[in-house]
Amino acid sequence: MKYIKFYVVLAFAFLVSNTYSFAQKDTLNQANRTIEPLKYGHFDNWMVHQVEESGIIGGNTKYTYEAIASDTLKDNKPFKPNGATPWANSSVMAHVKGIYKASTTIFPEERDGGFCARMETRIENVKVLGFINLNVLATGTIYTGETLEPIKSADNPQSKISRGIPFTKRPTGLIFDYKVKVGGVQYRTGATGFGKPKNMGTQNRAEVYAILQHRWEEDGEIYAARVGTGFKAFEQDVEEWQNNYEIPIKYGDISKDADFDKAADLNDRYETEECFYALNSEGENVPIHEIKWDGTKEPTHLILIFTSGNGGAYIGAPDAVFWIDNVKLAY
């Protein structure tokens, strides 16, 4: 029974430095604008991460996937992007109390002769020693930054992610192709692995965030001003691909806008498990104290998040799916 807590780490699928060239070299001129594809944002390149799970939970071979051109990663080695790709995702390898476990919520899917990214919300069933059944809900999420593999504990899922990548430009929009299934159940489900799944009484939605921050560090703590914000919530199914969909990025304080969504507010909840984290200059993952709006600052970091569900770890619609492709920035 002492191993039960470990399995909550599956829900890290909610998840849950050197500056490199974020955009690929090719650009498109569109209506006197510059459109820059993001590196690996076409999702045609994927690395397979092969994980051999421990015998106590069945000893299966599992696979997770990373948006990068690379050979298969084997022998339960953790994935370390080292600046080679801006993308990370909610599929994780955990190693807790000597037990290896993988959770997969992100998949490559064929599209138009290449691939796209498919994010799934799933309830994972784990059988321990053949008789202890645990059900954990995991939401599919793709984001800029790094998942700090291997996951070593079930505490505070956000603290296992370093959010964002170095970035100094001021884009006017986030462009991508998408289709979405928000979930066939009316209300979101909460499933932590302990007890029966709960009806949360709220509707699921897929969400997209584009956050530009100006960061600085004091005594090992990271502080940030919110420079620019783009946000979109999808609350209805969209069955056909929508190409070149654009979310505008607004600068400064958007909290008084008529269409302001509270989900796009400052992430100043650094005393809670909803706070974003990032690696400081000493390599420690610490909370980001996002303390103010300031559209005049030069950005230092870009956080992009695409997720098939909302509401936090372990909560979502079990059959929600969000597909994305061809992610670009407009200027």
Overall description:
With 331 residues, this protein is mainly β. The protein has a single domain (4-330), classed as BT2081, beta-jelly-roll domain (Jelly Rolls, Sandwich). Helix content is 0%, strand content 47%. It contains no helices and 26 strands. The strands form six sheets. Strands 5, 12, 13, 14, 18, 19, 21, 22, 23 and 24 form a ten-stranded mixed beta sheet that branches. Strands 1, 2, 8, 9, 15, 20 and 26 form a seven-stranded antiparallel beta sheet that branches. The chain has a three-stranded antiparallel beta sheet with strand order 17-16-25, with no helix packed on it. A hairpin with a 2-residue loop joins strand 8 and strand 9. The N and C termini lie far apart (55 Å).
Regions with pLDDT < 50 over 5+ consecutive residues?
A: 1-26, 187-194
Instruction: Work out the strand percent.
Output: over 45%
User: Strand-and-helix sequence, N→C?
Assistant: EEEEEEEEEEEEEEEEEEEEEEEEEE
**H/I helix tally:** 0
Instruction: Let me know the CATH homologous superfamily.
Output: BT2081, beta-jelly-roll domain
Q: What value does the Rg take, in angstroms?
A: 19 Å
**Helical proportion?**
under 10%
Number of domains: 1
In angstroms, what separates the terminal alpha carbons? 55 Å
Structural class, from helix and strand content?
mainly beta
Under the CATH scheme, the architecture is Sandwich
Largest sheet: 10 strands, mixed
Question: Could you tell me the number of beta strands?
Answer: 26
Q: The CATH topology is what? A: Jelly Rolls
Mean pLDDT: 85
- Kindly report the oligomeric state of this protein: single chain
Global geometry: globular
Q: According to CATH, what is the class?
A: Mainly Beta
